[in-house]
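Troubleshooting entry. The earlier prediction with LLP gave an output that would not parse, so I re-checked the input for stray whitespace and re-submitted. Clean input:
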Amino acid sequence: MDNPNYRDSILFVEDVALPDIAAQVGTPCFVYSRASIEAQWNRFDRAFGDYPHRIHYAVKANSNLALLNVLAGMGSGFDIVSGGELLRVLEAGGDPRGIIFSGVCKLEWEIRDALKAGIGVFSIESEGELDLIAKVAGELGCRARIAVRINPDVDSGTHPYISTGLKRNKFGMPADQAMEIYLRAEQLPSVEIYGIACHIGSQILDLGPFRDALVKVLEVVDMLEDRAIAIGHVDCGGGLGIRYQDERPPDPSDYAGQIRAVMESRPVRIPVAIEPGRAIVGNAGILLTAVHSLKRNDLNRFCIVDAAMNDLLRPALYQAYQRIMEVDRGSDAEPQVYDVVGPVCESGDFLGKDRLLRVSPNDLLAVCSAGAYGSVMSSSYNSRPRPAEVLVDGKDIHIVRNRESLRSLFRDESMLPSDRETG
Ligand code: LLP
């Protein structure tokens, strides 16, 4: 199901009209579709058929507890990158054994929390990290399962900020160094070699780089097997792109089908893991915003809305295009080309440029594809409270995060003692 979609002239998410959500929750707010999330997850799952696999949803894409809870209920595993994400997954009822802990800089307390929770595997990215994990596991009297993340030096063709599989990126280890880490890990009693991992970037629109990366990872698997080191899973990472504008990303089933085909060409079936984030939740969410006012100068027309770069950073940070739809397309306003901008005091604060819209003040707009890397990247810059989040389930609206309250903006701050108190 595509969300959002028009019924007559009004935009709906599942069976809920967006004006009803605005009336009940206010704007700006993020609105997600449960059915879309479930459908995407199932597409990945089905495409692997009977090939042993596990989907580890990348929590960083959208870490709202309700979404994590829905995915946990479907049997999803999780890919995390911090102690905060670990706690969210546990709170949402995720199975700790289905957790992969990724990231270049796991802190000692995060490693300890993860080991205590009994997570599945750490994807490690440096020798120093191996030593730290071994030390903490030794102190706790347990064995840490590890995979080494390979940097395959493959160009994923995506935005440079979100490309991770090239030599110049900080991520992963070249194959020869990875082998050294595995050989070292073999000697460490508090470490168990479990897998191998790779993640080459995000919003990738071609299957080729995924295949090239997997082939390189499997070359390392071959080297390990030559040394009688068995691998329990090959983690292919996340990264499959979605349609924001007119991109034509591969279907999740083709993506998963390709992994399956490569893996099936091997004599032994090694289970695979994948870590999709954006492809599961990206197009399941929108940011609902209201038009505040319209203004123009010689050069431009501006549509000023109540959402801003602090709510949705992607357009400002990556010059990312996100489609903007009128919630009521039956408006009789003149169609005009606008820059859609927010209240934040920066010219970088835009949600979209050169958009043809029929709008008047107080109309609602939906900024599409905001389910991934939307709310999670929001901030309270300009002391703007972070938006509410709503999960639609059929006809039902669930507020799964309240709008941040003004007082909570400075709840954890304090003033200096006054002169009188100190004197
Ligand atoms: N696994 C690892 C180790 C990752 O670093 C990431 C994303 C994923 C999985 C999930 O990738 P996905 O399937 O969502 O592409 N803020 C950026 C995206 C940053 C992605 C970082 N890593 C954006 O808004 O485009």
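This one parsed fine. The radius of gyration is 23 Å.
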